[in-house]
Design the sequence.
């Protein structure tokens, strides 16, 4: 578990098992739910009560985000990586072809994304400062800001000074997943490279908070460890970050492992129903926070979670560097996708769910 | 009641509308028409005034005056930038809201006062969103804002007027219109604000998130009209200070 939780993990797993229907219904009635209520809402006892969770979450989603859903598109800059994370398609042992986009190539991709109607972009890359340097990122952010109101990054951890350079260049949001909050599991899946250091990764997000990013994105890679324990760690992390960086918004993501490598054995599988339970529980306990659901999940699932819990979704994604301008790319992807709808299809599907798609929710003036 | 006047504009309706949470431009448009509102606010971050086919702006059309708001600004500097932009595209009305806290969206009094002073000098009509702080309301009045907009409870919570005691003091002391903004969840809350002596209310979540936004807009409009009528009818329980917005007009 995350070091911020002082309780014993056995005690927590026992309490999760003991939680009953009454506890769950009581948690749903609490006006300001916290860790205690979250524990009940993610417990096995709450799984048959998903309709109750869904009704409460829908109400809170409507109050805080209205009948809307924000869309963004990820742009993969590079799949070079110096880490060996066994679940990831970009890991350094992979023999697949590598590619890094030049600034010009990245801007060609950006213009293709802009053509979908997008105004919010997420820049993603593997960890390799030689191929993706701070100077490259800074220059790219400055160029991207001419096209997009909102820019977020999901790259390797940086120092406060480097994060600040990117913030000043126009990057608004930072996403840095801990992947798993369980220290032993972390060691098992992150074999070498800078990412093998659990504490360093946990501390790096603090650098981002200090640099002033508007949004701080956190998440666990679901499938590595018991999701219920991970959920409590994730919530504790959020509460800590919310207090420390009160000017920044927390964004939760709930990526389930959809491995590029079929040999990878998912050790702690999370079912779709359990994923839904977890997301609904977070909407209830963190009604004002952003919840992002990516194209790793199916159309049906994303349609279901859009009115109840999600505030933002990726759309029209490609996880291959250069995949937008040239859709025949056969290069190395990070993971596999399930929802392949275009932005226009997403918009019409959301409309039929009575949700307004928001492309612009920020401005270059900020 | 004597008609509401803010800056040089007279309003028939005391209901102002937010635009952020509707399911479509059509839903927004029908709510505007059903409410009878003459002033709507939209966040610059959500709209593109340079784009003639912008969803929100084209849904509003000519049906109401648009008051751009600075939502998203974390400090005075950012709010002033937005104000200057609004001025450059010919928008005169500005709702000044600076909430560095992204969770409860509570306004920053220090930055708001600094920004208000600068933006008033730009010649815009400035309506700051504030916590229900009577001293701040007077300080803003002193720098020349055109109305103050204290919150009833945090944005989007629909809890009603939890800050009643402080809003009563703001109304008692104000020489400019007082608009209760944020937290109003039901038509009865809106009526309560008007009965307390507020000049208008601004509603977003309660209408936009209703199953039938247009019907809810109408309900709010009727509640406000009912409260106005009650004041005109001389309800004995309503304080004498109501509507005394000029120091020379005490009785």
Sequence:
């Amino acid at each position: 578990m995350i070091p911020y939780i002082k309780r014993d993990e056995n005690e927590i797993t026992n309490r999760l098992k003991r939680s009953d229907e009454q506890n769950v219904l009581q948690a749903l009635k609490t006006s300001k739910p916290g860790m205690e209520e979250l524990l009940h809402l993610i417990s096995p006892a709450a799984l048959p009560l998903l309709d109750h969770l869904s009704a409460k979450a829908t109400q809170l989603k409507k109050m805080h985000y209205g009948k809307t859903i924000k869309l963004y598109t990820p742009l993969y800059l590079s799949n070079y990586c110096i880490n060996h994370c066994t679940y990831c398609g970009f890991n350094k042992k992979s023999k697949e072809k590598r590619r890094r986009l030049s600034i010009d190539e990245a801007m060609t991709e950006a213009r293709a994304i802009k053509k979908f109607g997008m105004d919010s972009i997420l820049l993603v890359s593997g960890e390799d400062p030689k191929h993706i340097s701070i100077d490259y990122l800074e220059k790219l952010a400055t160029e991207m800001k001419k096209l997009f109101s909102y820019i977020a990054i999901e790259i390797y951890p940086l120092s406060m000074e480097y994060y600040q350079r990117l913030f000043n260049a126009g990057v608004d949001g930072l996403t840095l997943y801990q992947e798993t909050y369980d220290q032993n599991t972390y060691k098992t899946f992150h074999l070498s490279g800078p990412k093998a250091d659990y504490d360093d990764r946990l501390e790096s997000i603090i650098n981002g908070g200090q640099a002033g990013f508007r949004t701080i994105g956190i998440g666990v890679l679901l499938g590595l460890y018991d999701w219920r324990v991970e959920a409590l760690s994730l919530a504790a992390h959020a509460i800590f970050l919310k207090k420390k960086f009160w000017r920044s918004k927390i964004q939760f993501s709930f990526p389930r492992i959809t491995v590029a490598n079929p040999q990878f054995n998912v050790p702690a599988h999370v079912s779709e129903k359990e994923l839904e339970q977890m997301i609904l529980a977070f909407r209830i306990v963190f009604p004002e926070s952003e919840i992002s659901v990516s194209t790793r999940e199916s159309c049906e699932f994303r349609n279901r979670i859009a009115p109840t819990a999600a505030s933002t979704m990726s759309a029209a994604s490609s996880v291959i560097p250069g995949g937008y301008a040239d859709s025949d790319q056969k290069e190395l992807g990070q993971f596999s996708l399930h929802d392949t709808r275009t932005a226009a299809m997403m918009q019409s599907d959301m409309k039929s769910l009575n949700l307004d798609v928001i492309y612009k929710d920020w401005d270059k003036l900020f | 009641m004597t008609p509401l006047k803010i800056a040089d504009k007279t309003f028939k309706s005391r209901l102002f509308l937010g635009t952020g949470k509707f399911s479509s431009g059509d839903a927004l448009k029908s709510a505007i028409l059903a409410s009878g509102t003459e002033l709507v606010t939209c966040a610059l971050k959500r709209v593109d005034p340079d784009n003639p086919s912008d969803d929100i702006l084209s849904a509003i059309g000519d049906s109401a005056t648009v008051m751009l708001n600075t939502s998203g600004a974390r400090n005075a500097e950012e709010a002033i930038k937005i104000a200057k932009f609004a001025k450059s595209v010919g928008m005169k009305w500005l709702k000044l809201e600076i909430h560095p806290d992204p969770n409860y969206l509570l306004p920053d009094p220090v930055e708001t006062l600094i920004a208000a002073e600068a933006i008033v000098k730009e010649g815009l009509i400035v309506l700051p969103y504030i916590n229900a702080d009577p001293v701040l309301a007077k300080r803003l009045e002193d720098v020349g804002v055109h109305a103050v907009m204290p919150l009833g409870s945090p944005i989007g919570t629909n809890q009603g007027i939890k800050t009643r005691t402080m809003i009563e003091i703001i109304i008692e002391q104000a020489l400019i219109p007082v608009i209760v903004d944020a937290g109003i969840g039901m038509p009865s809350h809106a009526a309560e604000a008007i009965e307390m002596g507020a000049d208008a209310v601004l509603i977003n979540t309660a209408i936009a998130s209703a199953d039938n936004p247009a019907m809810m807009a109408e309900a709010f409009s009727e509640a406000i009209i009912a409260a106005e009528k009650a004041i005109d009818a001389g309800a004995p329980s309503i304080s004498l200070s109501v509507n005394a917005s000029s120091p020379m007009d005490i009785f």
About this structure: Chain A touches chain B at residues 62-68, 149, 214, 242, 246-249, 288-289, 351, 354-356, 358, 360-363, 365-366 (CB under 8 Å). The longest strand of chain A covers residues 68-78. The two ends of chain A are 37 Å apart (CA to CA).
